[in-house]
Amino acid sequence: MSNCNICGYPVELCKCRDYCEQSYTEIEVDDGTKYRKKIKGVSVDIYDVLAAFKVYNPAVQHAIKKLLAAGDRGYKDKMTDLEEAKWSITRAIELEKD
């Protein structure tokens, strides 16, 4: 399995579509509604939560998003989201070491 030269993810899980060896034919559009929840009467999205907890590492942010909505976004199953979260955590550790 080869990894993307930009993000370090396996090419199959990579989000750097313009830079990977693999060509993509469709582009995902995320309007954020899958990450918006009402908590105690207040509507928040995952980005509000990440900011409140001062999560700045983008790979950690990605892992948290995957874990909180694993299998609930409609186009990937739970196991795929968990695998992608695992790769994000691995990448987060690499980024923190730099």
Task: List key phrases describing it.
mainly alpha; about 100 residues; 3 helices
Description:
The chain is mainly α and 98 residues long. The chain has 3 helices and 2 strands. The protein has a two-stranded antiparallel ribbon with strand order 1-2.
Short description:
This protein is mainly alpha-helical and 98 residues long. It has three helices and two strands, in the order ββααα. The chain has a domain at 31-97.
Report the β-strand fraction as a percent range.
5-15%
Basic shape: flat
Reading the helices and strands in chain order gives EEHHH
Q: What radius of gyration results from the CA coordinates?
A: 14 Å
For the residues shown, what is the average pLDDT? 76
Unreliable spans = 17-29
Distance between the termini: 24 Å
Instruction: Count the E strands.
Output: 2
Could you give a short account of the major beta sheet? 2 strands, antiparallel
Strand order across the largest sheet? 1-2
Tally of individual helices: 3
Write the topology of this structure.
Layout: E1 36-39, E2 42-45, H1 46-52, H2 58-68, H3 78-97
Antiparallel strand pairs: 1-2
